[in-house]
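Worked Example 4.2. Consider the chain below.
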Amino acid sequence: MDLSNDEIKRYSRHLILPEVGLAGQKKIKSTSVLCIGAGGLGSPIAMYLAAAGIGKMGLLDFDTVDFSNLQRQILHTTADVGRLKSESARETILALNPNVEVVVHNTRITAENALEIIAQYDIVVDGTDNFPTRYLTNDACVLLKKPNVYGSIFRFEGQASVFAPHLGGPCYRCLYPEPPPPGMVPSCAEGGVLGVLPGIIGCIQTTEILKMALGRGTSLVGRLLLFNALDMKFRELKLRRDPECSICGDHPTIKELIDYEVFCGVVPEQANSGANPDEVSVQDMKKALDDPSLHIAVIDVRDPDEYEIAHVKGTKLIPLGELGERFVELDSNQQIYLHCKSGMRSMKALNLLRDRGFKYIKSVKGGILAWSDQIDSNVAKY
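Applying the procedure from the previous section yields the following structure tokens:
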């Protein structure tokens, strides 16, 4: 695969590296990569792969661009809000390097389509943010013998590795045989993330991809790299393939893709569409705040920083992390409504109080986001 004169000029700083040279740049050009996710991690990955001259890049994402994405998802701009991320990303990549073949997969990756899509690429890079997709990506890559370049981020911390049992290393299941209980690990939408963090972890993932394309250096196969941005420290853990692993072990029990929503304990949306007896609506919350004669207490279980950003007048702040000690401030005989940002932490608070003998408790469905959408748009969404 020859380089044009324009490409030779574009990649000149690669070509003068002895470890790359003309032959190495041709290897990069002949490599295809599937980027699962065009968000926080996918943004630096896609942009630096394009800049480096990767030959073919698949972009798999079904989401649209939101204002809250722009703090870290540098593939997209303010003008892209509301557009499909895959289309916005494609335009950005081609504007950066029109020599890259960009294939858009504007779909959710599933057990039904994963093998067909992944089979088209040499390397898979995981830029996802949920456990069902991570396990699905891992299992498909193991079955197809494709390297899975992994990264994850949360708040100020990130981690990266390369899972490739066919190259002698472990897979994602060797590290995490079972997913955490649903809701145990907060998402970035709940816990937040430093905007620059996915840039750091994404660049590490991209570096691993380019090294694999070149066949140079020592990869992260068999190693987990941990990064703490607050301390500016890297740590490394040695990883080994688990001979008892359910998919890459000596006697695998998983020989085809499974239902990953069920495996991770995620309730399908359609199954969760009915009324939950433990939940009330934001309209119910408004009635409680407007009518003191109802004697209903509304407790906000978010963190103080979130309460400062936006809160509903008349609510009392008791952060979820303090509720285990401060529940004595509440009257167990009074009706209590619990609310948070989206309704997840308020359900955790409900279970905590129920374990302490509270009977008259409800979680406000949708939290302050639903309040902003349905009751008062002056309350900021974040």
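Residues 31-270 form a domain with the Rossmann fold fold (CATH 3.40.50.720). Confidence is low (pLDDT under 50) at residues 269-273. Compare this with Example 4.1 before moving on.
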